[in-house]
Structure formats: structure tokens, C-alpha cells
Design a protein that fits this description.
The chain is an alpha+beta fold and about 170 residues long. It has helices at about 20-30, 40-50, 55-65, 70-80, 100-120, 160-174, and strands at about 90-95, 125, 130-135, 150, 155. It folds into two domains: about 10-80, Arc Repressor Mutant, subunit A (Orthogonal Bundle); about 90-174, Glutaredoxin (3-Layer(aba) Sandwich). The structure holds FE2/S2 (inorganic) cluster (FES).
């Protein structure tokens, strides 16, 4: 599996945001699929996160303006859902499942292994900006526990040895 690194736009580039033509077209195509602009808010935010790597206050304002929404409503939605990133992420965001099936199949040990291996706690990133570690609830792949999601990809039936090999591959690619 080849997990693509997240390429995020620096904060200084996202103070005042104007969507480029490619993103604007994706937004326009998305809006056609929903009865109201408000109903398209979540998918439009996903498009923005895909484009910029995260959602800055400037991106929130641009989305609010594009959809004719109140900026406070957009901010409320972004900050409610933990899957929206409100700061530039590391290249690889690791989400370790800590719910029951994974916990019973070695997830707890895997999580401890990762904190030691990366030298960071949950919610923290390595100093080189390569990895970021989070503990999350069920990722919906309980049948192949324990599971770690890295960016958009699932790594299933993980062991400390297997995750070490994955991290090595991702580090080599960086
Ligand atoms: S409990 Fe870990 S994926 Fe469901």
C-alpha cells in the first residue's frame, strides 16, 4: 500500500483565501448535487481540506462567503467534527483505534509501542513534522483488529513489527 503524504498549505498562505479554478469547479459540481448550499457544507469542507491539507480561519471565511453562510456556523461545524483539521498536519497522521475489539487484540500494546517508537504522546507530532499520533474510537474495521489509519488508508491486523515496517517505508519515501 502506498499512502500519500498530506501536503499542507502554510498558515501564512491561508489568511485570505480565493479558491483556484480547479477547486471552484469541484465546489460548483458538488453544489449541484444538494438542494441548498447549506446542505453541501460538509462535502465542500472536505474538498477544501483535500486541497489545502487543513482548514484555516481564512478557508472557513471563504467557504462561508461561497455558500452564503454565517462564518460562525461554518466555524462551529469545522470545530465540532474532529476529522476536520484546524492546524497544518504532519505528513502522516496516524490514528490508532482504542475501542474494544482492537484493545482486546493488542491495540493497547500497539498504541504504547507507537508512543515509544515515535517519542510523542497522543495529539503530538514528531519534531521533523513527519508523523502525528492520535487515539481514536472504532474505525469500523473491527474484524481485522487492531487497526491504524494513516491518512486515508487502513492498516489492519497490525503488530508492533508490522507497524515498524510501515513507518520505515513511509520514512524512506519522505
Ligand atoms: S474496535 Fe477498532 S476498528 Fe472497531
Amino acid at each position: 500500500m502506498t499512502t500519500r503524504p498530506i501536503v499542507s498549505e502554510p498558515a501564512e498562505n491561508l489568511c485570505e483565501v480565493t479558491f483556484d479554478s480547479k477547486l471552484e469547479k469541484r465546489i460548483a459540481d458538488t453544489l449541484k448535487q444538494y438542494p441548498t448550499p447549506r446542505a453541501a457544507l460538509l462535502p465542500v469542507l472536505w474538498l477544501c481540506q483535500d486541497r489545502y491539507g487543513w482548514i484555516s480561519p481564512g478557508v472557513m471565511r471563504a467557504v462561508a462567503q461561497r455558500l452564503g453562510e454565517n462564518p460562525a456556523h461554518v466555524e462551529g461545524v469545522v470545530t465540532f467534527y474532529t476529522m476536520f483539521r484546524t492546524r497544518p498536519p504532519a505528513s502522516y497522521v496516524l490514528q490508532v483505534c482504542r475501542t474494544l475489539s482492537c484493545a482486546m487484540c493488542g491495540g493497547k500494546e500497539l498504541a504504547e509501542h507507537l508512543t515509544t517508537k515515535l517519542g510523542v504522546g497522543f495529539g503530538e507530532r514528531t519534531p521533523d513534522g513527519l508523523f502525528e499520533l492520535h487515539a481514536v474510537e472504532c474505525l469500523g474495521a473491527c474484524g481485522s483488529a487492531p487497526v491504524v489509519q494513516i491518512n486515508d488508508d487502513y492498516y489492519e491486523s497490525m503488530t508492533p513489527e508490522k507497524i515498524d515496517a510501515v513507518l520505515e517505508t513511509l520514512t524512506r519515501k519522505a
